[in-house]
């Protein structure tokens, strides 16, 4: 069954970073915990794009901290950890997310955060144990540079932990598909306060998570 138009409208406004539109839709009692027709929850979209103010707004209006998208089963914390959005992670942690929740491949948000020094302290403070590199490789979160397709643009790679590392983050398809889905781009520069405008495509009406190939 298709999601209500209001759910799609809210998800589109969130993906565009249109705070006034989000505020208006919430004032019209649009349900905040309803997936769009693409299977995305507004909170997960806001977390992925790094819109910390919208994340806070959605949470104040009853967004479930542990809702997860279809396909990948990513929570908002998974999305923020993969992208390295420190300000979003801080706001999410204040609402006590379930740190044991796993995605469709059995990975927690802490597993993704383990690949990024800049955001790991948020998870360490919450009592998480950092996942070893060998496990990150097994989980397909990072891979060795020597295993990377040499034709892949260097701009499409995010280094593990520090510049010059022998490991890079792997791409993760949003809906858990590979051939038919658009790919996510990780904003893994290591800057906790990074601008939410980096590493994006021009249009976000229907989020286009580009660009790595897996």
TrEMBL record:
Record keyword Repeat present? yes
Which domain of life does the protein's organism represent? Eukaryota
Q: Where are the ANK repeats?
A: 38-70
Keyword terms of this UniProt record: ANK repeat, Repeat
**Sorted alphabetically, which SMART domains does this protein's record hold?**
ANK (SM00248)
InterPro entries according to UniProt = Ankyrin_rpt, Ankyrin_rpt-contain_sf
Instruction: Write down what this protein is called.
Output: Ankycorbin-like
**What is the originating organism of this protein?**
Branchiostoma belcheri (Amphioxus)
The opening ranks of the lineage are: Eukaryota, Metazoa, Chordata, Cephalochordata, Leptocardii
């Amino acid at each position: 069954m298709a999601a209500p138009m209001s759910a799609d409208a809210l998800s589109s406004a969130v993906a565009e970073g249109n705070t006034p539109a989000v505020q208006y839709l919430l004032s019209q009692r649009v349900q905040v915990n309803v997936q769009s027709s693409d299977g995305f929850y507004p909170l997960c979209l806001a977390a992925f794009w790094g819109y910390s103010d919208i994340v806070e707004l959605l949470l104040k209006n009853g967004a479930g901290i542990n809702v997860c998208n279809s396909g990948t089963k990513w929570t908002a914390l998974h999305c923020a950890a993969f992208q390295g959005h420190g300000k979003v992670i801080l706001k999410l942690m204040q609402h006590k997310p379930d740190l044991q929740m796993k995605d469709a491949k059995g990975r927690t948000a802490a597993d993704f955060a383990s690949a990024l020094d800049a955001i790991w302290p948020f998870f360490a403070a919450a009592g998480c144990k950092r996942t070893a590199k060998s496990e990150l490789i097994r989980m397909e979160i990072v891979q060795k540079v020597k295993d990377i397709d040499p034709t892949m643009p260097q701009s499409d790679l995010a280094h593990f932990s520090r510049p010059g590392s022998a490991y890079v983050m792997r791409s993760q398809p949003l809906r858990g598909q590979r051939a038919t889905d658009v790919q996510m781009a990780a904003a893994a520069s290591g800057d906790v306060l990074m601008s939410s405008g980096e590493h994006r495509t021009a249009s976000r009406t229907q989020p286009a998570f580009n660009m790595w190939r897996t």
